[in-house]
Amino acid sequence: MLKIEQLSLSDFASRSQASASRYTVMLLHTNHSSEPEMPTIATYAAQPEYTQGRRYPEAPPQYRTEFQRDRDRIIHSKAFRRLEYKTQVFVNHEGDLYRTRLTHSLEVAQIARSVARSMGLNEDLTEAIALSHDLGHTPFGHAGQDELNACMKDFDGFEHNLQSLRVVDVLEDSYADFPGINLTFETREGILKHCALKHAQTLGDVGQRFLNKTQPTLEAQLTNLADEIAYNNHDIEDGLRSGLISLEQLQQVPVFAQEYQAVLQQYPTLQGRRLIRETLRRMIGRMVVDLIESSQAAIQASGVQTLAEVRAQPLALMRYGEAMRQQKNGLKKFLRDNLYFHPTVYRMTWRARKVVRALFEAYLQDTRLLTPKYQAFAKRYETDMGDAGRARAIADFIAGMTDRYAMREYGQLFDLSGLR
What we know:
There is one protein chain. By secondary structure, this protein is mainly α. The chain folds into 3 domains: 61-218, Hypothetical protein af1432, CATH 1.10.3210; 240-335, no CATH class; 353-419, no CATH class. The protein is built from 20 helices and 2 strands. The protein has helices spanning 9-16, 66-75, 78-82, 101-119, 123-132, 141-151, 160-171, 185-191, 197-200, 208-212, 218-242, 247-250, 254-266, 272-302, 307-311, 322-340, 343-365, 372-385, 387-399, 403-413; strands at residues 2-7, 25-30. A two-stranded antiparallel sheet has the order 1-2. The radius of gyration is 23 Å and the shape is globular. The chain starts with a strand and ends in a 7-residue tail after the last helix. Belongs to the dGTPase family. Type 2 subfamily.
């Protein structure tokens, strides 16, 4: 078994005669004891024993940390299970091989956790944020979100980051003592990647950083970038599988072309899916290495030693190098122009938007069409907030649907034959 040994700066200086930095140096040595391996946590990482707490006080967990408890609650939530049948790009019934919000969330968690371990960040918090970041996504991917936002334009809009927070704070109903699943501040903060100032003013503690222009934890910053790495690379694979983009087109994207040519040079006879998978594997690895090295350099240059100092930085410390940032942006532009707005995808998203719009208008006209739980929400919210409250309950209901549920609900209320 391998065990990490931490050396103080004086120990390191005396042993290596090298110039010492103030950062922890880790050496690996053989450990024959039965003690489990524990990752080394940097002083500027989030520490579960110093969490800013939960909305509702609870006794400390036994045999696990506060962030491990968060992760476990997320995995056991209904909203997490529903991600299996929510779309990334392709509507869920279009095929079983395309990625869903669940597979995407697992891929983000894998990438983010690997980076966190290599950088001495808190793996459990990183994983909790990664697994929960899409809990508020609507059915039908971004098309569903955009249409629901349009439906809610007179009622303060709809945004999936805010909805993810709403899911864990309000809508989950597994506990007797409180609504939601009562996550720690740090996990909730990481879920809320973006927030308009008008919303930040109403969110309490997790909204303060948008008002004060401070930074979230490094774990939250990392998960945001791991999200990009996962969907950029995996949307390429799904796009190629669907036939909507081609290898010839991708040759115009430098970050893909460089790895593709390197694979062919090493394996001249490789072709088909294995060639694509090997190329994407290397792309992910290259982005991850760049992220780690660029972020470590930024952290060292900043001189931060504590989480408070991380929060006080003018810019996020987790970042790509400039060359990789430009290549990543080029890849995003390619996917936007050639996949997300492809005529075939547009036809799918047009149908999806029609479903969301029709359901919203039907429920708004008659809330008795909602399930009993959301009928009660609509009544209570309407009492408190008027028409906006009624609309918010409807948005909650629609956002919680899977693709299949939304299509089935549309079929029960309207004629589905025209959408097939």
